[in-house]
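Let's practice the habit of predicting before peeking. Look at the sequence and jot down your guess about where helices and strands might fall. Then scroll down.
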Amino acid sequence: MARVRRTKTVRFGVVNGQPPYCYKDIATGAWRGFLVDITKDLASGLGAEAQPVESTWGNAVLDVQANKLDVFFGLAPTPERAKVVDFTKSLYQNAFSLIARSGFEPHTWNDLNDPSVTIAIELGSVYDLNIGKLCPKANVVRLRSNNEALLTVQAGRAHCQIIVVIFALTTLTRNPGLGHLVVPEPLFGSTTNAMLAKEADPVWRDYVDAWIDKRRGAGEIRRILVDNLGQVGVPASAVPPQLLF
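Done guessing? Here is the structure:
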């Protein structure tokens, strides 16, 4: 908090090519997306500017530890991450969903729990951490990225990809021929939080927590996310009720 007040900047992590979360505008070179707008909202309450710092999902924890970032929105807490960084309250609850290939019509996680079903997931992701309890009998193919998992489904080597519903909506809006959206029952998901450096003084975490409570209660978290979905072609009517704010 002291650095933010002194410099009047909030350094936040951005990952390119991740709409609606964050992406670089090809025409202007400016960063856009939900993570950009949400950090601008946070910074404005402090009279500060939001300063984007490019990172990756894989390097985010290290960048926060190395004091390159004041905040990184978009990662879910895990026991391993919580050993080295701090997490705020959640902004919203993101639902696990499937991008399923044509003709594959599961309705529940149990429908996937069969050795004849091949599921593509990103190695080391929150999906990978939970696949063992969701459908332990399924044939799981672990790939280096979500894009590789999607290509595996597209090539017919997997029946579906597990991915959070926000990314699934964006992907299928841009490329409807890739498959169709399924949100299996019972609902399973992960929270979307802000990640901060561990500090002896909790003042920065407490401030961000209080800001989340205020903006979530006012419906602003939902509005900013839905607005950014609209900017990449996903209408508000397509946002499923399983996405909890």
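How did you do? The CA atoms of residues 87 and 226 lie 23 Å apart.
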